Amino acid sequence: MKKTAMKNSNTMKLALGTVQFGLDYGISNDGGKVPIEEVKKILTTAHQNKIDTLDTGCVYGTCETVLGDVLPGQDFTFNVIDKIPDIETIGKTIAQTLEQSLAKLHLEHLEGLLLHNAADLTDATYQQLNDLKTQGLVKKIGVSVYHPSQAFELAERYDLDLIQVPLNLFDQRFIETGCIPWLKERNVEIHARSLFLQGLLLMKTSQLSSYFHPYMELFDRLDRYCKTLNITRQQAALTMVHHQDSVDKFVIGVCSQQQLEQVIQAYQEARNIEFEMDPFSCHEEALISPFLWPQKKK
């Protein structure tokens, strides 16, 4: 059985996802796109709590523009990871897309650049990414994947610096397949997203739509276990951050400064919680793959 172990490290492993800054995003997001004044508060709180990495993308609505408007006026900086959208849809080269993103962000270079679609990583696109790295426009190149098989195949074929994977209490595929330690052996930096499964893991069962009713027993099991340990679901989800030493960053998204403060507090509290993860692993794509969920009604 997998249990979290108590850690002494004070390293902040949380990274801040910014999609909510540019889009009405997330199944549990009732407030829509985050107002710019709230974005400033969120970024300030993130910096004060040693969160040093932002995850963004040019397909995240106005996100890059918002960050470009806000960050230059601050006395702190972040490492920015950006994503290239589906190659077939952008109608321009990776270099041209990066140039536009850097202009919007008011940056001269990025910490990392990922292909959003794993199928877009080919010999040709890898060469384009590597050229940008050689030019000093990006420090790390990589890809965002959905399945362990993609990570195994692409990291075997290409010399990648960074791979982003989905990982949470319900979706433990990258742990169970041994993919995470395998990537780490190849010196690949690993960023995990969907820690809260777009907020689904934090929602009350009474708030879940009928689509999720087939999985209600899993949610009830989680609630019972959390009650036994006298912890919240948020704390439970965050225990994974302290358990997975090989994962470098866990990307979380928030819609307000208050939410970020709550996450950071739960993150600290989760450090000393021993949590058995195995019983909550689920391989039902309909649950663990948000792109299969019904679209949220506007």
Overview features:
globular; alpha/beta; eight-stranded parallel barrel; 298 residues; 12 helices; disordered N terminus; 8 strands; TIM Barrel
**Low-confidence sequence ranges:** 1-8, 25-29
Computed structural class:
alpha/beta
Report the sheet-strand fraction. 5-15%
The amount of helix comes to 25-40%
Write down how many β-strands occur, each being a DSSP E stretch of 2 or more residues: 8
What does the largest sheet look like?
Answer: 8 strands, parallel, barrel
Overall residue-averaged pLDDT value: 92
Q: Distance N terminus to C terminus?
A: 42 Å
Elements, N to C (H/E): EHEHEHHEHEHEHHEHHEHH
Rg calc: 19 Å
Strand order of the largest sheet: 1-2-3-4-5-6-7-8
Q: What is the CATH superfamily label?
A: NADP-dependent oxidoreductase domain
How many discrete domains?
A: 1
So what's the overall shape?
Answer: globular
CATH class division: Alpha Beta
CATH architecture name: Alpha-Beta Barrel
The total of helices stands at: 12
CATH topology: TIM Barrel
Describe the structure.
The structure is a single chain. This protein has a single domain (14-292), classed as NADP-dependent oxidoreductase domain (TIM Barrel, Alpha-Beta Barrel), CATH 3.20.20.100. 38% of the residues lie in helices and 14% in strands. The protein contains twelve helices and eight strands. The chain has helices at residues 36-48, 63-70, 87-90, 94-105, 123-134, 148-157, 173-176, 179-185, 216-229, 233-243, 257-270, 285-288, and strands at 14-17, 53-55, 79-84, 110-115, 138-144, 162-166, 189-193, 249-253. The protein has an eight-stranded parallel β-barrel. The longest helix has 14 residues, at 216-229.
